[in-house]
Amino acid sequence: MSERRPPPDVQATLARAAAFGLAPQRRYAAAHREAALAFFLDQVKTCQLPRRMRLSAGQAPLLQADAAGGRLLRLGPLGDDALTRAFVDVLDRPLTAEDLPRVVDCLVAVMPEAAVLMLTLGRSDLAGSGLPPAQVFQALGLYPAAPDRQARLDTLFAAAEEVLIALYTGQDKTRLFRNGTELPRSLIACLDRLLAGPGGLIGMVGPEDMLCLTGVGGPDHGIGLLHLPEGPAALVFEAEASADLAAFWAEVPLMP
Amino acid sequence: MTRDDLADLRRDFADCEMLQLVDVAARTVLISDSISRLGQEHHDALCAQAAALFAPGAVDSPGCALLASPTGTRVFVASQLDATEVLCGVFAPGADLSMVEEATRAVFARSEAGG
Q: Nearest residue of A to residue B48 by CA position?
């Protein structure tokens, strides 16, 4: 028997309704606080178009939030006045990555231990970068911990093999990714200056960071300064890959 | 470069949280545009990083620098006409950064041409 599909005009109407968040109320019986948090964050992930979320436990409102692009953009008024006062610094404004610790504290404080949660979705016009739920999950310990630096580096090596040229760890110690591609002496001298502490640019690179530079040490090379377990190092790669490598490095901790 | 140029550029990138134009010689924030009101310390910290990267007369000043961390990426692009002017941006993790330098250079070029 062939599958029956609604006519196209009905499909369009349903799609519009879903886009505006007019789907029926969602209900979830959370057995504990972690389950309530996971439910809320999973719902954030499903919001691609901008949505205003209203979460309540039975008749008691818990919180309002805005989500779009699968990210949590804003926390709105909380159901509890005392909590609203306690977290006023992260309410009713666009959220950024730096708000993560306070947002986590706020969500933990808001969620009940066990309750039947009701979530309604409405239209929102908020835009912004917000917080990815994966980051909140990790901060709550509900996701596997972010990979350590060596694991992140291994992931980078595997994903970017085609654009990587060398890994330089100082004192002429070079791991070449391409046979027969020696680094020019002038480039090694530049890498030594960049890695020399405390005056070199490695000094502004945190333990979890990578600083990608172009226009230094030659027009064809990009340089990524980072800290390995054994010390500071410089990745040399094709210059045009700089933005993609930086974006990848920032995103690796969020990968499942 | 005007504040409107900066605001237009930020709107072109959905994951851009803040842009500011700084003078690294004077260590001054010239103009800024952000998704929400930020404390002056955020602007000053970004300006200090730009000044460290693009110190006038430094042997190894880059054309473009991206500082990637688990909380996002900071992007720094120096003007090719006036190397003391650096555009700094803060982008959320997962942002597509592939067009940021090119778009920034286009804004620099338009403003330097008086357009």
A: A204
